[in-house]
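(Deposited chain)
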Amino acid sequence: MKLKSLIGKEIEDIRVIVKYESYGLDFADSFIVLKGNIVIGIPWIDGEESIENEDDLIWERTLPPEASSIFEGKGNEKLKKLKGKKIINCLYYTDSENGFIQAEKAFFELEEEKFITEITAAPNGTGHAGLWVFYSKEELEKRYGTNYRRLNE
């Protein structure tokens, strides 16, 4: 499945598994459930490669039963606003800018200027492993910089 085929697809659910390792690393795995029961992962992108030339970038997944929905629970009101949003683009960083954090995965740009990505590993107790949501382009650029490209540019 090509990355461009995701444009216009609607998010039905986002599920995450986080495994905690005391005094070590926390590991996360995110599953994006799209309308039509398509389950994908967020693509890994090598900053030196262009995603336009890739034929098979979509990681179709099997949803494990232990994956928890980010939309469940009272404290997740802000996250619930992602449900039903369509993917409008995919961003990738071609290189890290001086002073900015290197992005390990691509970003899905959703309707209403929201962006999601995933951090797969982080020091235990920091809360950084898992799905990351940016609620504006400015918020995204503050963390990762402006050295990104969009799929449909």
User: Anything to note?
Assistant: Residues 137-144 form the longest helix (8 residues). The helical segments are 77-80, 137-144. The mean pLDDT is 87. The CA atoms of residues 23 and 102 lie 23 Å apart.
